[in-house]
Structures are given as structure tokens and as C-alpha cells.
Request: fold
Amino acid sequence: MNFVVLGRDRAGGEARARHRAGHLRYVAGHQAKIVYAGPLLDGGRMVGSLFVFDVADRAALDSYLAEDPYFDPGIFESVEIWESRWMVPERQPGFLEAEAERAEGRSPAAAAGGR
Reply:
């Protein structure tokens, strides 16, 4: 399952700076779970973090977050978590066309047979 995690920093960013080395070391050992991650920037200044995870389920995500130093209380003013679904780039050729056919109310199998 894919999850998007958005953490917005507390004002000042001192807590982020104190935990950054530990966070980077933790992330380095768990890269297989992370599709994409990086800082949120406002005029070049870090104001938060964005993560996209590919994990088995919400419990696996919660387990990861419980150990990452950035998710210690006090780092982020707020943390938002959404379940998501991988669409682009396609992981399987033809996936987007099949989604387009479903969006049009056609079954992909029926549409393929009618060509």
C-alpha cells in the first residue's frame, strides 16, 4: 500500500536540526519502504517533510514512523497521512489505458475484444 505523509515543522526548526542526523541514518537503512521523500521548501527554507511510502499496510507505516527520529513529538507541528495509489509511472504496461476504459464505464477486457 502507498501512503503519503506530510509533516509541517514547528516554527524555528531547531527540533528538526537536532534530529536530522539520526533521521538520515534511520532512512538510509529503510530505503526499500520509501518511494520518494524530501524536504518541503518555502523560498529555499525547510518548512516540513514529504514522504511517499510503499509498505504492506498501515501497521507497517506506523511501525516505521514510531522509530524514525523525525516523528518524535516536538518535531512537526502537524502530521497528515493519506492512503494513496500508484498510478504514474505505470508499473505494468497498459495500466493507464485500462484505468481510462474503466473511467469511461467500459470493462478493459470487453474493450480489448472489441478492437
